[in-house]
Amino acid sequence: MSNVSLRGLKKSYGSVEVIPSLDLDIRSGEFVVLVGPSGSGKSTLLRMIAGLESIDAGTVSVEGEDVTQRDPGDRDMAMVFQSYALYPHMTVAENMTFALRMRGMDKTTIGERLTESVRMLSLEGLEHRKPGQLSGGQRQRVAMGRAIVRQPRVFLFDEPLSNLDAKLRARTRIELRELHEKLGATSIFVTHDQIEAMTMADRIVLLEKGRIQQVGSPREIYERPRNTFVASFIGSPEINMMEGKLWFDNGTAWFEQLVLRSRGSESASLAGVAAGGYTLGIRPEGFDIAREPLEGSVPMVVGAVEYTGSDTYAFGKSPMGDLTVKIAADFQAVAETLHTGETLHVKALADGWHLFDSSGERVTGG
Amino acid sequence: MNRSRVGGLLANSVVWGYALMILGPTLWVLSNAFKFKIDIITGATLSPFTWMNFQELLFSRQSDFLANLFNSALIGVVSTAIVIIAATMAAFTLAYLEVKPWVRWAILGWALLFHMLPTLTFVGSWYLMYSSIGLHGTYFAVIMTHAVHNLPMALFLMVSFVGALPRELIQAARMDGCTYAQVFWRIVFPLVRGGMIAATALTFIFSWSDFAISLTLTSRDTMTVPVAIATFAQEYDIRYGEMAAGTLLSIMPALLLILVGQNFIVRGLLAGAVK
């Protein structure tokens, strides 16, 4: 267990700045997920921590020890690759013990560690197979095993689940998380999949264009997105973003035709906010739905209804733009009879909204 | 006749014409090797069978053919070994180490250019170079020149083979604590063995059948088979029988290598074409 700290990390390819300057502290035993769209620099960052990518400026330290100039093999970090990168000419056992043999560890210890990891990953009976004779899921576990036997200070994961089918991915997500609880090692996990990030992370680091947009627990990131990018990236279906004017009338806050309320005292979260132009974000589940107009609601003409089994979403047009609305469970009767072309009336739930200023930064919200 | 039949006929005749161009002389040489000189000169198709040409070639005092075979083998084996080791290591360096792009392109570009220029452009200067330092006619001179001459082709082959290895494999080995040298010997070397066999077969055959370089740089003691065969054609007497027998014998190792290596060669030439 070790903490990892990144200070002023910079990386450019020629004139293209991939990571302008990045600081991040990862606590000991923490499971941190680096997430972002493709080209956000998350994989590059992971490879810089691993030592596989040169660093233009800044330092990487593990437990206060500067490892920036060390070889990848001397950082005591293990990595699980997206393609697994198993050595095709070695058996499962040889693959898993390769790093230990390179370190000249004695045979008994190697044997013990191998047996333990094989059992932990239920790879019994496959030790003498070559990677080519394994299924995708088994290969993935061998790749994990290769990292586990080393008992490294830090685990690095580079989208290790993206080559699995959906069902196996969901299961492996849980297994990986359980494994983390068991081993308690510091883990840095890269993914572009927000579900993976949300379900696995202790803390999420959201990157875009090499800059950290927000660091926080999955709940913090979802419920208090720091800017419009974070709000849009996390959440599926995507958050509704509306541009318009905020105005006050007798203590009631209005955003165009929508009333904005807070739980407890009315409009409390808007105290001290000036009227003017803003961007309003409301997640699909942040709406109250009715068949008749309510005070502070907008009409929405339903264009499509999407039934996913557990949830129903309605997509439609309103005076404030296109909206995606989740139909709450207690409104299922409506969902069943809802049809295209019908008009629904939606209003923002108390604290179900986020207000961003013109530069996209969070002002206030639920 | 419809179009496709005309096309088929055309294609067939091209193939057969091509086969005739190769098989005709081969069969002619093959049959000459077992004929008496008088039958060869008179152009007799059906003639008495004899081993005499082989006896003359291998055991007469006028011929050093066994020594020539040894020279060819020695030069071929040593120069091929040098080429393959250098090419594989260079390919690894070019593909995975931090080589500046312009250096990579300069090396590969020069290799291609060098390979495209006719060998005869260079042999004159090589002759002068080796003569001036007193190394003309030595094994060293021919071996080094064959190595230099065949390196570009082997380099191109090995770059495609080594470059086809997934990058993450090399990175995984680095994470597992390998130095680049260890990555090369423990990961890259075992995985490109097929490519090395292909490159070895081609390089050896090129060295074995080379004429221009060997003619210029060998002396009587280091003479290779192709040069020796050419010496059978003298001003007043062309010894067709011995030439044919020598050709037949010299084809054997190449044929054997092709049979062993053809799978690998085809794969090598296609490497990188499809994933």
UniProtKB/TrEMBL annotation, chain A:
Q: Which residues form a coiled coil?
A: none
Keyword annotations for this protein? ATP-binding, Cell inner membrane, Cell membrane, Membrane, Nucleotide-binding, Sugar transport, Translocase, Transport
**InterPro entries named among the record's database cross-references:** AAA+_ATPase, ABC_transporter-like_ATP-bd, ABC_transporter-like_CS, ABC_transpr_MalK-like, ABC_transpr_MalK/UgpC-like, Mo/tungstate-bd_C_term_dom, P-loop_NTPase, Transp-assoc_OB_typ2
Q: Is Secreted one of the keywords?
A: no
Molecular function per GO: ATP binding
Q: Does the keyword Translocase apply?
A: yes
Give the source's domain of life in one word.
Bacteria
Where does the UniProt annotation place the signal sequence? Answer: none
| Every ABC transporter domain range | 4-234
The family this protein is said to belong to:
Belongs to the ABC transporter superfamily.
Q: What is this protein called?
A: ABC transporter ATP-binding protein
From TrEMBL, chain B:
Matching Gene3D superfamilies, A to Z? MetI-like
Provide this UniProt record's keywords sorted from A to Z: Cell membrane, Membrane, Transmembrane, Transmembrane helix, Transport
Start and end residues of each ABC transmembrane type-1 domain: 69-261
- Originating species: Chelativorans intermedius
Q: Which PROSITE patterns match?
A: ABC_TM1
Protein's name in the database: Carbohydrate ABC transporter permease
Query: What stretch or stretches form a coiled coil here?
Result: none
What are the leading ranks of the lineage?
Answer: Bacteria, Pseudomonadati, Pseudomonadota, Alphaproteobacteria, Hyphomicrobiales
Q: How does it sit in the membrane?
A: Multi-pass membrane protein
Family classification:
Belongs to the binding-protein-dependent transport system permease family.
Source superkingdom: Bacteria
Instruction: State the compartments where it is located.
Output: Cell membrane
Which segments cross the bilayer? 6-29, 74-95, 107-127, 139-162, 183-208, 243-266
InterPro entries noted in UniProt: BP-dep_ABC_trans_perm, MetI-like, MetI-like_sf
Keyword match Hydrolase: no
